[in-house]
């Protein structure tokens, strides 16, 4: 059984620099939250996750996007940067209005004549962890 290894279209340093740029750009409206980025490619797809979260993860917002870069005639790095650019544009609107949400399941989008998919859901990981702990202790 052969498994396709996930590869990185951008280096860890590049991803850290992009996250740093987003954190600087939105510093005035982040309220203690910070961005982090991940990117990988597998087969003909590039996958990007931009996570906005606070320290205790009571606000945890992963925005995920994917694109078939070969079909869209993009290079691997170019596809990752394209997705990050779109997500950055989304957060620019979200952080101002707090009323623009993405679908929680994969949905088709088009931006600059490129077809891709995106999803996102705001979670409260702290509350989830507390619930798991409570349920774990009550089952003893």
3D architecture notes:
The chain is built from 3 helices and 5 strands, in the order αβββαββα. The model has no long low-confidence stretch (mean pLDDT 90). It has a 5-stranded antiparallel β-sheet, with helices on one face. It has one domain. The chain is of the alpha+beta class and 140 residues long. Strand 2 (45-53) and strand 3 form a beta hairpin. 36% of the residues lie in helices and 28% in strands.
Number of helical regions = 3
First-to-last CA distance: 40 Å
* Mean pLDDT rating: 90
Number of domains: 1
Helix content: 25-40%
Q: Numbering strands along the chain, what is their spatial order in the largest sheet?
A: 1-2-3-5-4
Largest sheet: 5 strands, antiparallel
Report a brief summary of the structure.
This protein is an alpha+beta fold and 140 residues long.
How would you summarize the topology of this molecule?
Elements lengths: L11 H14 L8 E9 L2 E9 L6 E9 L7 H22 L9 E5 L2 E7 L4 H14 L2
Features of the shown structure:
140 residues, alpha+beta, 3 helices, 5 strands, 36% helix
